[in-house]
Amino acid sequence: MTYQTNRNPPTSNRQLLIIFGIFLGIIIVIIWLVCFFVDNLVWIISPRIEQQLGTLIVPAYERLAQPSQTQDTLNKLLNKLELNLPLEQRKGRDYQVLYVPNKTVNALALPGDRIIIFSGLLKQADSENELMMILGHELGHFANRDHLRSILRQLILPITLASVTGNSDWLVSVASSVAVVSDAKYSQSQEAQADKLGLELLYKTYNHVAGATDFFDKLSNQKNSDLDFLSTHPSPKQRVKDLQRLIKEKHYQIGELSPLPKELLIR
């Protein structure tokens, strides 16, 4: 009886792990290249082109916004902060706040120089200084071009990963998971930089930084996530620590809080 040797033995677990590791390495390199490409591209996009991009996004929020004394007052506060921006960050810009009655506790920076403030966030603010820190943070996103980075990454990265993984569901799932973790860390870095500029603007506006950490103190008491590495924002407690460290390093003074203008009291 003649026996034939199996010339195609089954793939071992070790070989599968090696293949999987190579695949992960390729995905990580692709994500890094996309981030590098986007990081350089955002500085080439002119304010005029950015505003044209905003015409595709902002109208949806304009329909939700509520023109009112509240929105007018928010824009007056924003103007005070804007005066302390470097000239190159103001040239060709038209920063405005859109006030959206919605219980969402959030604020957004959108192409077209628009900052979205939801009533849920405004309701959390107990002082003008606290609110100005939030507005300054959003101006920080504009200064660092973070709003454009996020949009371009969301457009380019899925297309690139899909072209690499093809139609394989499990490969797409793995690649997407790696991208989520990478995007979370990337976004956390953006948020930290925006906090830094927000703190600087707060100091330049009031000559002290009272209220800088108040909003994040509240968040840290309301929400305690054990998955900070998956969050697009640093944990509130970490943000408070980072801001306190910056305040100490720069020798910023802590003065008296200014009350919220009556138009912003929505209790």
Automatic annotation (TrEMBL):
GO cellular component: a single term: membrane
One of the protein's GO biological processes: proteolysis involved in protein catabolic process
Organism phylogeny: Bacteria, Bacillati, Cyanobacteriota, Cyanophyceae, Nostocales
Keywords: Hydrolase, Membrane, Metal-binding, Metalloprotease, Protease, Transmembrane, Transmembrane helix, Zinc
Family annotation (InterPro entries): Mito/Outer_Membr_Metalloprot, Peptidase_M48
Gene3D superfamilies, A to Z: Metalloproteases ('zincins'), catalytic domain
Protein name per its UniProtKB record: M48 family metallopeptidase
Limits of the Peptidase M48 domain: 89-245
